[in-house]
């Protein structure tokens, strides 16, 4: 099987149920999710299996769920089943709480960085926020967008923040507080 089809040579791409321009809002939204998935893959390569087994398991699950998100956005058929489930959001919330409890309490904003893995997880957080903005724009333009994708992305960015902090904490790297920040976390 060849990887190239030449069907996109004129700036159009296929969705499940139609063809659109490659700069369509829907394509931009699931393309940003694809970019996010690649950053997660990079973070996985930077995490030590013996220290971060739980995070690595989380990240693999998240990568699968992001494929679900992309598929749910790329499906424009009238009769369709949404793949992403509410239970994925519930699991994220439990993991966010657990990771937040593990890291030291926060009072101020922190600078993205620390270990290579934490820095990549912070990039994943910001790309997640961009993906969420793209989905919200799409939701504002079209009514037929699964709202669960936006909700999942909203929670996922919080997960990456908590995971980045734990990636630093478990390796004894302190988060650097933003020096002009007041106490914002209580």
TrEMBL record:
Assembly with partners or alone: Homotrimer.
Domain Cobalamin adenosyltransferase-like span(s) in chain numbering: 3-167
One GO MF term: ATP binding
Gene3D superfamilies hit by this protein: Cobalamin adenosyltransferase-like (1.20.1200.10)
Assigned keywords, A-Z: ATP-binding, Cobalamin biosynthesis, Nucleotide-binding, Transferase
Pathway(s) where this gene product acts: Cofactor biosynthesis; adenosylcobalamin biosynthesis; adenosylcobalamin from cob(II)yrinate a,c-diamide: step 2/7
Enzymatic reactions: 2 cob(II)yrinate a,c diamide + reduced [electron-transfer flavoprotein] + 2 ATP = 2 adenosylcob(III)yrinate a,c-diamide + 2 triphosphate + oxidized [electron-transfer flavoprotein] + 3 H(+); 2 cob(II)alamin + reduced [electron-transfer flavoprotein] + 2 ATP = 2 adenosylcob(III)alamin + 2 triphosphate + oxidized [electron-transfer flavoprotein] + 3 H(+)
Enzyme class: transferase
E.C. numbers: 2.5.1.17
Xref: PANTHER family: CORRINOID ADENOSYLTRANSFERASE (PTHR12213), CORRINOID ADENOSYLTRANSFERASE MMAB (PTHR12213:SF0)
Family named by the database record: Belongs to the Cob(I)alamin adenosyltransferase family.
Species this chain originates from: Ureibacillus sinduriensis BLB-1 = JCM 15800
The keyword Coiled coil is assigned to this record: no
Superkingdom, natural source: Bacteria
Any one biological process term the GO annotation gives: cobalamin biosynthetic process
Top-level taxonomy: Bacteria, Bacillati, Bacillota, Bacilli, Bacillales
Database matches in Pfam families: Cob_adeno_trans (PF01923)
Protein name (database record): Corrinoid adenosyltransferase
């Amino acid at each position: 099987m060849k990887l190239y089809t030449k069907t996109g040579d004129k700036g159009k791409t296929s969705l499940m149920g139609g063809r659109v321009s490659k700069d369509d809002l829907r394509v931009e939204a699931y393309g940003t999710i694809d970019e996010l998935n690649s950053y997660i893959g990079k973070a996985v390569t930077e995490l030590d299996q013996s220290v971060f087994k739980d995070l690595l398991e989380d990240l693999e699950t998240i990568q699968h769920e992001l494929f679900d998100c992309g598929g749910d956005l790329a499906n424009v058929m009238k009769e369709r089943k949404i793949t992403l489930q509410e239970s994925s959001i519930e699991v994220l919330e439990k993991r966010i709480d657990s990771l937040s409890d593990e890291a030291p309490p926060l009072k101020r904003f922190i600078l993205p960085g620390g270990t290579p893995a934490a820095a990549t997880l912070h990039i994943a957080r910001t790309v997640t926020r961009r993906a969420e903005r793209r989905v919200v724009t799409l939701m504002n333009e079209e009514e037929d967008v699964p709202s669960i994708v936006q909700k999942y992305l909203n929670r996922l960015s919080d997960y990456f923040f908590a995971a980045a902090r734990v990636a630093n904490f478990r390796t004894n790297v302190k988060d650097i507080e933003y020096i002009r920040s007041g106490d914002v976390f209580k």
